[in-house]
Amino acid sequence: NSKEPFSDPRVRRAIHLAVDRQALIDAFAPVWEPAFVTRWLPSASPFATPQEELLTMPGYRPDKTEDIETARQLLADAGYPDGFETTFTAWTEAASSEVAVPAFAELLRTSLNIRGDIKVVERSLTADVLRTGDFDLFKSDTYASSILDPFPFWNSYLRTGASQNWSQYSNPDFDALLDQLSEEIDPDTRQDLVNQGLDMLDENPPFFLIGFCAHSPMWNQEVKGLAIEQRQWSKWGRFETVWLDR
User: Fold this and answer.
1) CA–CA separation, 152 and 190 (whole Å)
2) String of b and e for 230-245 (b: at least 16 CB within 10 Å)?
């Protein structure tokens, strides 16, 4: 969000509208965990938009014809009627560098003529890349939470200056909504605030959200020492205390 052209909300919304999320999920499904199209919350959250409603909304509906037309106009309004060149960054994991990122790049090229090379970085350098912001478009799966309530989730990733705000998103209106959400306890009022937040994020997206994976942790009863809370961060975790009891 701090670099042109992605510092322009119109460019980010154009991408949000144009890319076919389900096509992208279908492309990487054979090499990834199951993923589902959602808005800015996991579908398991009680605050999430119902699936039948979601699939009628711009950016999420299966028919991309109108969305792509709107997206191209947004790019033209932002000064990029012919698209632009960029760099896609992927980590060395094959599912990312050889499947997911190339699929995303192709969908952007065919829908908006946004094109560019793919830069591959070592998985161990992911944190450094995110922290320094040394990327244009970077495929990351760090937007995750083990808590279904939206406030701690959004507050960590989307508040201006937050510790995990890797996209460097800054939206004063959204920050103000988070302040309200942190104090409100009435369930119906909280749902109204969350709905407002979802609409804000659709209109001024911090990044392109593919969807959320469905984690169903399970392991053989002979596996000992594996804590369920470690599952969320399994790609980064070390399992030095896990053993087979046979």
Assistant:
1) 13
2) beeeeeeeeeeeeeee
Both tokens of residue 50? 């119902």
Query: Global pTM?
Result: 0.86
d(CA 146, CA 152): 10
Rounded Cα gap, residues 139 and 147, in angstroms: 23
* HSE-up (13 A, CA, CB side) for residue 173: 10
Report the CATH superfamily, name and number, of domain 9-215: Dipeptide-binding Protein; Domain 3 (3.10.105.10)
Contact at 8 Å (CB) between 95 and 125? Answer: no
Q: Which two tokens stand for residue 58?
A: 């711009």
Q: Does residue 200 register a pLDDT over 90?
A: yes
Does 227 score more than 90 pLDDT? no
Return contacts of 149-152, CB within 8 angstroms, 24+ apart.
149/45, 149/47, 150/41, 150/45, 150/47, 150/181, 150/194, 150/197, 151/178, 151/181, 151/182
Break the chain into its structural domains and give their ranges: 9-215
Question: What six digits make up the tokens of 33?
Answer: 């965990």
How far is it, in rounded angstroms, from Cα 169 to Cα 26? 28
Mean pLDDT of 25-45: 86
